Amino acid sequence: MAWSTREIAELAGTSLRAVRHYHEVGLLAEPERRANGYKKYGVAHLVRLLRIKRLTDLGFSLSQIAAMGEADDHPADALRALDAELAATIERLQRARGELAVILRQAVPTDLPPEFAPAAVPELSEADRSFVVVLTRVLGPRGMQAYSEMLQDLPDDPTAPEFGELPADADEPTRQDVAERLVPYVRALHAEHPGLRDANADAPGGAQFAEQTVGKALVDLYNPAQLDVMRRIESLLRASGPTDPT
């Protein structure tokens, strides 16, 4: 029994293009040709083609199939390795579905990880949200947890919106006034969330790298007046006594 390329492709449930590609990459041996020049495939070609299709359907790449050779034995090691890859893929997809569920349920931005999703409230300004996104890329698990808990339980403060709307050319008395009125708010946040004090401690890239990255983000996201208010708050907290968190 001999088949043409089209016939063997149909028998194997694949395409002409696939059969030709398997020839090109060396997975399927070239058959003999008839007197008229057309290829003449036999049973061995069909069996090999069916094996290739079965393995690709299971998830093996063509390079992995090539590494197995043409033996029709049971490739236990390769199957175990593929099973581990599939398990990891399933876990990743399940995690992605979980994150998608949170995003859809809470209508949160896609740039925030799940642990920060509850914090994506409308009150967060664009600058604040962008700053949180930067934090998620440099903080470790403990630092992430500290900021996440703070943002999920962020109290209202009438001065906070003033800070967000502070113009870059705000005069010195205005900046000092905003800073002084924000100090109790910031002190209360640190008291409620002590983990903020050493949020950089377990940063994957090191505390210094995290501090530098956060500093750059602050400069890029907030205007000069707002940055000055932050510096004034830090100075006022230091001056208030060694027991106050900084």
Automatic annotation (TrEMBL):
Keyword Cell membrane: no
Occurrences of domain HTH merR-type (ranges): 2-71
GO-annotated molecular function: DNA binding; DNA-binding transcription factor activity
InterPro entries attached to this UniProt entry: DNA-bd_dom_put_sf, MerR-type_HTH_dom, MerR_fam
Pfam (any one): MerR_1
Record's keyword annotation contains Zinc: no
Keywords, ordered alphabetically: DNA-binding
Gene3D superfamilies: 1.10.1660.10
Entry protein name: Transcriptional regulator, MerR family
